[in-house]
Amino acid sequence: MNSSESTAPRLTVVQWLICLIAVIGFAFDTYVLLMLPLMLQDAIETLGPYKFQSPDYIAWSRLLFFVPAFVGGLFGLLGGYLTDRLGRRRVLTWSILIYAFSAGAAAFSTSLPMLLVLRCGMFLGVCVEFVAAVAWLAELFPDPTQRENVLGHTQAFSSLGGLMVSGVYVLITQWRELLPSISGTHETWRYLAMSGVVPAIPLILIRPFLPESPRWREKKEAGTLKRPSFAELFRPQFRRTTIVTTLMFACSYGAAFGAIQHLPQIVPGLSEVKDLPKPEQKAVIGHVQLTQEIGGLVGRFALAILAVQIVSRRTLMRVFQLPGLVIVPLVFFYAAVHDLTLLKIGIFLAGFFTVAQFSFWGNYLPRMYPLYLRGTGESFAANVGGRIFGTAAAWVTITIAGSTWLHDLLPESTTYVRYAYTAAAVALAVYVIGSLACFFLPEPQHEELPE
């Protein structure tokens, strides 16, 4: 960017602490999102109890993927509005408390409806947290170059949450018998749910004492802060931004939820895995997920670096979209049904090109809406586009993969193969739509945040 030629001010001790807390916050967002694919099968088989791919299993899979995302999206939308009305820091604090309670209680679920309700609480917390945190960070760092670097690099650590949950899953699988029992059992999924409380602890203890956004506080105290509204998002100056970013956010999430997050339902069908004992299968699944998360982490850091080098936001997005358009569907169509080693290579690249796109929005959206509308605008794209429509791709994949007509179309294929082919088709569809929508993505008019 043009301002990269100037020298940005050095970070203060407080600003470094803010960055550290932001890193933890973004990491726990991803931690809770990626927890479900790893615990899904065991939880349904335990609490149902329903066998894998039975009609009841498919129904609960769809509910656990989609309903929490839908509820989280609705409350996340409200959270974005409240971020503009009540302040960034206050909303962040309450979102973390809701999440921490829900994560801890989910480990003690005695039924699938109870798990579903608590999963909704976990999603609600992270959906609100993401929007409030992005607006908070953007306004705490007014220098354009510094802001782009802070937003890009702190969001890059979101993938640390994926690495953490994959690593924790592998460790729990191997050592769960040595842990204290939960509800009288040593079930992996219960320990995984309980582990979600850990990243929230430093946030609860430190974030309430960090500073509020200076510009928001100044306008609030002066009585000049305009009242946000959702209708404002569709006024002529914001309408195109709102529609295009919502659609593209949905496509970014659609690739993750419609394809990548279904790996635990696909990997056991590979020839190198299918004959292994179940604990060893789980370990392989964890390692594949870990490989994907490493790819996502590298991709996010690549975007953070390129965000201050590439002026055009459309060009920046296409650096990740166009290769992903080819690679991600191919990984699921071929590698996921033929070879474990090839799948690991492919899923690293799929994570690199797909997950990096999530960081793009945190850098882009604060520059497109004025201060009084920033949280509301971000929340509409992130929650309506990403959480509600984007995560609905999981419902589509599960429904099609388990349908009788696909079974009739591919009578000799296994359930795992049908999952892989469906994931490939969904990934191709959302990547095509996202790549076309990118042509209409508005470019920011200024490097400074609009007031």
Please outline the helices and strands.
Elements: H1 13-47, H2 55-86, H3 88-106, H4 112-140, H5 144-156, H6 158-175, H7 188-195, H8 200-206, H9 214-222, H10 236-258, H11 263-266, H12 278-306, H13 313-338, H14 340-364, H15 374-390, H16 392-401, H17 404-409, H18 415-437
Walk me through the structure.
The protein has 451 residues and is an all-alpha fold. It has one domain: Up-down Bundle (Growth Hormone, Chain: A), CATH 1.20.1250.20. It is 74% helix and 0% strand. The protein is built from 18 helices and no strands. The chain has helices at 13-47, 55-86, 88-106, 112-140, 144-156, 158-175, 188-195, 200-206, 214-222, 236-258, 263-266, 278-306, 313-338, 340-364, 374-390, 392-401, 404-409, 415-437. α1 packs antiparallel against α4. The two termini are 20 Å apart. The model is unreliable at 1-6 (pLDDT under 50).
